[in-house]
Amino acid sequence: MVLKHLLRGLLLALLLAVGFWVWKTFFPGDEALIRRQLVALAEAASFGSDEAPLVKLTNAARVAGFFTADTEIDIAPWGYQRVVISGHTEVQQAAVGARNAVASLSVRVENIEITFRDDPAGARVRCTLTGRTSRESETQSQEMELEMLKLDGDWLIHRARTFDYIRN
Residue 81 has what DSSP assignment? Predict the structure, then answer.
């Protein structure tokens, strides 16, 4: 009798665990969606030396798809001059330019901190971008602050800027 109740309890616990896993997998929260979006952006921005010209254009357009149409990016990347980019077209042009400037680029997003605004369709994200190009022997890192908006179910970057923890 005790064994029967124990087995029922274990079966119920197993069903609850499977149900929780299914729910989290198929209906992730906004924080998980933002993290996935940023990882996907890093993958889209990365490229190898064997990328064909047509693939370069396609992947550059894919990078632009992670941003709102009226996006504003203000960055000082890894020891270079400050760059200001506005809108999808300029994001795509910058992605093509990066692909033409170096043979390969590997980008990762790490240390993601997400703060949701009072507006449920907005979030501020601080993260660390790390990257290595074919020209650099060492990995470079850059702290970033992003303002993301949820549009039609997708979290898109509306504003991006380099972030200096020492000054802020």
Answer: -
Order of strands, edge to edge, in the sheet holding 105-116? 83-86, 67-75, 154-162, 140-151, 122-133, 105-116
Domain 29-162 has CATH 3.40.980.10: no
Q: Per-residue pLDDT for the chain (168 aa), expressed as one digit of tens each?
A: 777 767 776 766 666 666 666 666 665 688 999 999 999 999 999 998 888 888 888 989 999 999 999 999 998 876 678 889 999 899 999 999 888 888 888 999 999 999 998 877 899 999 999 988 877 778 888 899 999 999 988 999 999 999 765 555
Report the distance separating Cα 77 and Cα 82, nearest Å: 7
Angle ∠(159,162,149) on CA atoms, nearest 5: 20
For residue 25, report the phi and psi dihedrals to the nearest 5 degrees: -75, -45
Asked if residue 166 lies in contact with residue 79, where contact means CB atoms within 8 angstroms, the answer is: no
Distance CA 52, CA 48 (A): 10
CA dist., res. 140 & res. 142, Å (int): 7
pTM: 0.80
